Amino acid sequence: MSEEVKNEEVLEEVEIVDETVEETPEKTELDLANERAEDFENKYLRAHAEMQNIQRRANEERQSLQRYRSQDLAKKVLPSLDNLERALQVEGLTEDVRKGIEMVQESLVQALKEEGVEEVPVENFDPNFHMAVQTLPADDDHPADSIAQVFQKGYKLHERLLRPAMVVVYN
Amino acid sequence: MSEEVKNEEVLEEVEIVDETVEETPEKTELDLANERAEDFENKYLRAHAEMQNIQRRANEERQSLQRYRSQDLAKKVLPSLDNLERALQVEGLTEDVRKGIEMVQESLVQALKEEGVEEVPVENFDPNFHMAVQTLPADDDHPADSIAQVFQKGYKLHERLLRPAMVVVYN
């Protein structure tokens, strides 16, 4: 707004000056100075806006990096957890060994949980979280999309899937 | 700011115009325009420099977050690794159980290694990486600062210590 007013003002002055001598160079200089001022004002405003954008994006990125920081290590730790769970299925473990394995398993689950990693729920088949490795015919007792068996647990980090659960599903 | 300048400008014009011929007001206006231009140029340059600083800091921070992203989960996984190692010391494990535990241990070590986590070396005592939980008198065969025994392994993430090694040291 202020810029527009300024320009009108300058135009009026210019019209009058044409008649006289000497003044034209100063007017031009003034025009140029005003243009320069306007130019830098625009540059400043753009730089300022860009600065705020950069700051906002950096904040968002930082938050996302923080939230998902454990993603890579968590993914790599999951097979160890699978193996511990498989070990617990083995017949004929002594009580000490079983207790030991359970302890390691629990502490690993706890470590993952504290970082936001949790098992994917397996109530009803959800293609976003489950991978059907086998299907069984649905019947009255087993409606379509109910899950018959979990071959391998799935995990997510907060709302982000780390790996799907491998399931047998009725359909 | 720009509004204030405008007001001053107007006032000056009114005062001066009465006395003289037409040049002074233009000069003043030019001066003000030049000042305004200079002012915005400075603001622009500062904003630009600040923008680069913000960008640089955001980059540094992003790199650091990336580099140490696994720190928290890694720290929490270490006790599981300790327990697996302790389990392997137990007498009378069947060959299958031993193999199973070793497999889990190795996959956990590998997962940590891929994320930059490694054991702290234990050649000579270094207070930056070791915690002396016990000392033994040094002698000809065991010079001061050599390590007699490692109670618990230490780990670092890149160059950053996750936890010190617990050692017995000669001194």
Features:
homodimer; 171 residues; alpha+beta; 2 domains; 3-stranded antiparallel beta sheet; 3-stranded mixed beta sheet; 4 helices; disordered N terminus; stress response (chains A, B); GrpE (chains A, B); GrpE_head (chains A, B); GrpE_CC (chains A, B)
CATH architecture of the largest domain in chain A: Roll
Largest sheet of chain A: 3 strands, antiparallel
Strand order of the largest sheet of chain A: 1-4-5
Q: What is the helix/strand order of chain A?
A: HHHHEEEEEE
CATH class descriptor name of the largest domain in chain A = Mainly Beta
The low-confidence runs of chain A, each spanning 5 or more residues with pLDDT under 50, are 1-20
Q: Shape of chain A from CA axes?
A: elongated
What does this structure look like?
The structure is a homodimer of 171-residue chains. Chain A has helices spanning 2-17, 23-67, 71-89, 95-114; strands spanning 117-119, 130-136, 147-152, 155-157, 160-163, 165-170. With 171 residues, the first copy, chain A, is α+β, with helices and mostly antiparallel strands. The first copy, chain A, folds into two domains: 2-67; 71-170, Roll (Nucleotide Exchange Factor Grpe, Chain A, domain 2), CATH 2.30.22. A three-stranded antiparallel sheet of chain A has the order 1-4-5. Chain A has a three-stranded mixed sheet with strand order 2-6-3, with no helix packed on it. In chain A, a hairpin with a 2-residue loop joins β4 and β5 (160-163). Chain A starts with a helix and ends with a strand. At the A-B interface, α1, α2, α3 and α4 of A face α1, α2, α3 and α4 of B. Chains A, B: One of its GO terms (molecular function) is protein homodimerization activity. Chains A, B: Residues 30-71 form a coiled coil.
